[in-house]
């Protein structure tokens, strides 16, 4: 199973958009193929220190996939390759 981690914070417009893109793309994949984990930099000082200027951040299996804007096509391709 692939793990997608979405790192953001509350009241972040780009984070909301990224969340919608992730939900849409994951819904197209077979059930259980991708586990989505959402983390907030507001809850974790280490995440804040690492990612505060790049949110939203998408990690796939712990590796950086992208930040700021999430491309549905690029995400779909990356997740299809790991599923």
Radius of gyration (Å): 12 Å
Compute the number of helices.
3
Q: What is the helix/strand order?
A: EHEHEEH
| End-to-end separation | 7 Å
Assembly classification: single chain
Which range does the strand content fall in?
Answer: 25-35%
Structure report:
- By secondary structure, the protein is of the alpha+beta class.
- It contains three helices and four strands; from the N terminus they run E-H-E-H-E-E-H.
- It has a four-stranded mixed beta sheet with strand order 2-1-3-4, with helices on both faces.
- Strand 1, helix 1 and strand 2 (34-40) form a beta-alpha-beta unit.
- The chain is globular, with a radius of gyration of 12 Å.
- The termini are close together.
- The model has no long low-confidence stretch (mean pLDDT 96).
Defining traits:
83 residues; 28% strand; 4 strands; 3 helices; alpha+beta; four-stranded mixed beta sheet
Q: Nutshell version of this structure?
A:
This protein has 83 residues and is α+β, with helices and mostly antiparallel strands.
Give a topology summary.
Layout: E1 2-8, H1 13-28, E2 34-40, H2 45-51, E3 57-60, E4 63-67, H3 72-82
Parallel strand pairs: 1-2
Antiparallel strand pairs: 1-3, 3-4
């Amino acid at each position: 199973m692939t793990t997608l981690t979405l790192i953001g914070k509350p009241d972040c417009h780009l984070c909301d958009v990224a969340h919608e893109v992730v939900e849409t793309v994951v819904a197209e994949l077979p059930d259980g193929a991708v586990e989505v984990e959402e983390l907030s930099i507001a809850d974790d000082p280490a995440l804040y220190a690492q990612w505060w200027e790049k949110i939203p951040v998408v990690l796939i299996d712990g590796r950086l996939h992208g930040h700021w804007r999430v491309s549905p096509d690029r995400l779909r391709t990356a997740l299809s390759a790991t599923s």
